[in-house]
Design brief:
The structure is a homodimer of 208-residue chains. By secondary structure, chain A is mainly α. In chain A, 78% of the residues lie in helices and 0% in strands. Chain A has a single domain, classed as Tetracycline Repressor, domain 2, CATH 1.10.357. The first copy, chain A, starts with a helix and ends with a helix. Chain B binds a DNA duplex (30 and 30 nucleotides) through helix 3 and helix 4.
DNA sequence: ACTTAACGTATCCACTTGGATACTTATCGT
DNA sequence: ACGATAAGTATCCAAGTGGATACGTTAAGT
């Protein structure tokens, strides 16, 4: 089984990957993919689908697990790399956007489903966003990257930033010529969020 | 013809509205709607579609015009109302979110398509976001709502805010119980953006 | 070598689809 | 009243769909 995966992914993985490719390319959700369309894209007979999944929603759950798994692993890696960067915001922005570019289908589908109906991928993405935001709070606090900011203000900032990162990742994937500008704008946004929440905190403190 | 519209919308309008309903409900894009599905939802024979549109993309263009027209009209109204508000940010947030709630299908589809492939609605939404952002700059400058901020920093803020407003509108539509919290969070985001860009501007000024 | 399980393919079928074409209805203009 | 036009319905057809069922292939275990 491990040997087979090294040579050619199994039917199940091929179907999952085909689903991402189709959904990304067509701007549709996984739930509206056709069985035969999917099988054609995976290079399989359409009945093979039922060897691995009972329903399209089943496939959605597998895809959601894929999204969450890959994203969380990437974020860990990005955090490690960015911690060695002179400016953490710039480091995170660069590594994240480059990773998104290299995993375009998965990111594209994940971000699109973030605004969809209650699909498995949407739920997975919501959890991912929340987890990234809260772990970012812990990292920023432990490294004293934004001195003086309170945890709830910080969480508001990291949540907005996480969401915005995914949104900008779509543009980064689509517009090769504007990548530098998109990255710079993302860094600007991140800084504005921290400074803005800090300023709001001070305003609230002086009026209380 | 005018009499007919007053009593029951014509076939064309019924098809457009049906398209929004289906896309919003199913989390799909207009481009992937089925002809008969659409006709059923509109209460018409499926061939009636061809009386009004040559292709589904044609319908997409009509829908895009609808989105842009209604959104821009609503924004004008919201600006008038909010200008009479003690705090403009709170006023804009309230009026906008309530309008979104009352036009849920159109907003839902519009925001979803903002992250889609190059569909007519996506293009229309991108123009709407840009227009709202630039007009907000003009209004804020003329009313001196954020004294001292430079126009390019202000545009960055209004662009982020406009996008975030649409994103939060989806949650506002979906989660009646959390509406108060969502509105407050949106207001917080708006203020943080202005203050953050102002702070960044000062930082850049002192380091130059 | 034989058996079993997992995976993949082929065939069939009832149903649905998009689009062509013919027909019907309602409205408007002369 | 009549004719033209716009809008809507009905019928037909070829192609495609999802799912049931049978068959084929491969790998692993005894």
């Amino acid at each position: 089984m491990e040997t087979a995966s090294a040579i050619q992914p199994g039917g199940k993985q091929r179907l999952i990957e085909a689903a991402f490719r189709l959904a990304a390319r067509n701007g549709t959700s996984l739930a509206s993919l056709g069985l035969r369309e999917l099988a054609r894209e995976a290079g399989l007979n359409h009945n093979t689908f039922y060897r691995h999944f009972a329903t399209l929603e089943d496939l959605g759950h597998a895809a959601a697990a894929e999204v969450a798994g890959q994203l969380m692993a990437a974020i860990k890696e990005i955090r490690r790399n960015a911690a060695r960067h002179a400016d953490a915001s710039v480091g995170v922005a660069e590594y994240f956007l480059d990773w998104a570019r290299d995993n375009a289908d998965l990111v594209t589908v994940g971000v699109r489903e973030l605004h969809s109906t209650e699909t498995p991928i949407r739920k997975a993405m919501q959890r991912v966003v929340h987890e990234i935001a809260t772990e970012s709070v812990e990292q920023i606090v432990s490294m004293r990257l934004v001195p003086g900011i309170e945890p709830d203000a910080l969480l508001r900032a990291t949540t907005s930033i996480t969401h915005y990162m995914f949104y900008r990742a779509l543009d980064y994937i689509e517009r090769p010529r504007q990548r530098r500008a998109i990255r710079d704008e993302l860094v600007n946004f991140m800084r504005a969020q921290f400074l803005g929440q800090l300023a709001l905190q001070r305003t609230t403190a002086t009026s209380a």
